[in-house]
């Protein structure tokens, strides 16, 4: 199990409800992953690679600053 799910953090940058995103074949081709891999990442079953992270951020037009902020752990005190 992944403790810091970066896929959901990326989606929350672009969608109010992350469930609103429905990946298409063009999405899978653009980011270079399979549907099975996407759902493993989305559900937190597997850790995202650096390359996948950059491709997904690029797909959603997330800047490097926003991508860096997604990776930061937040401490809820």
Structure write-up:
- With 77 residues, this protein is mainly α.
- The protein is built from five helices and no strands.
- The protein is globular and about 25 Å long.
- The chain starts with 5 loop residues before the first helix and ends in a 6-residue tail after the last helix.
User: Which class do the helix and strand fractions yield?
Assistant: mainly alpha
Mean pLDDT: 86
Number of helices: 5
Let me know the number of strands.
0
Low-confidence stretches: none
* Rg (C-alpha, Å): 12 Å
Percentage of residues in DSSP E strands: under 5%
Topology order in helix (H) and strand (E) letters: HHHHH
**Could you tell me how far the N terminus lies from the C terminus, measured between alpha carbons in angstroms?**
23 Å
Kindly report the oligomeric state of this protein: single chain
Helical content band:
40-55%
What sort of overall outline do the alpha carbons produce when their principal axes are compared?
Answer: globular
How are the SSEs placed, and which strands pair?
Blueprint: H1 6-14, H2 25-31, H3 35-42, H4 50-59, H5 64-71
Helix pairs in contact: 1-5
Quick overview:
By secondary structure, this protein is mainly alpha-helical.
Write out key terms for the chains shown:
single chain, 77 residues, mainly alpha, globular
